[in-house]
Design goal:
This protein has 139 residues and is of the alpha+beta class. It has one domain: HIT-like (HIT family, subunit A), CATH 3.30.428.10. Helices cover 21% and strands 29% of the residues. It is built from two helices and eight strands, in the order αββββαββββ. Strands 1, 2, 3, 4, 5 and 6 form a six-stranded antiparallel sheet that branches. A two-stranded antiparallel ribbon has the order 7-8. It starts with a helix and ends with a strand.
């Protein structure tokens, strides 16, 4: 979940993008690309979550196939193997793994991408969230 401020920033960004795929535009050497394999990018989420599973989010990365696919089922065997190895590497470094199914209504970009979320600190003692109006309060 994002704070109200970060949600507004994300919504404004969503209004500026056209029908092109933002993940297909990733390239080696870009500031947000942290590493790459033969078939995948590890990238910083420009609009990362602030809270996940009741904890503060320290870092929010994404694993993105270089080839435009809308489902993990569309990956070739070599890409899928590389994907699993990269997920295992990042998970062992403390990242939680989350991905939305192709038909999930809250998936904002068709190009498949897997969220890698590193949590920190103690769990929040209190959280209150409403979608409309967008309010998130946590302590």
């Amino acid at each position: 979940m994002r704070t109200r401020k970060h949600k507004k920033e994300y919504d404004r960004y969503q209004e500026t993008i056209d029908d092109s795929c933002v993940f297909c535009e990733l390239r080696s050497g870009q500031k947000r690309v942290l590493s790459e394999t033969k078939s995948h990018w590890v990238t910083k989420n420009l609009f990362g979550y602030d809270t996940w599973d009741g904890h503060a989010v320290i870092e929010h990365l994404m694993l993105v196939p270089k080839r435009h696919v809308t489902s993990l089922a569309d990956l070739k065997q070599a890409e899928l193997t590389e994907f699993a190895m990269e997920i295992a590497r990042l998970e062992s470094s403390g990242y939680s793994v989350y991905s939305r199914a192709p038909n999930n209504g809250s998936r904002s970009i068709a190009h498949v991408h897997t969220h890698l979320i590193k949590l920190g600190g103690k769990p929040k003692k209190f959280m209150f969230f409403t979608r409309k109006p967008y309010i998130m309060i946590s302590r």
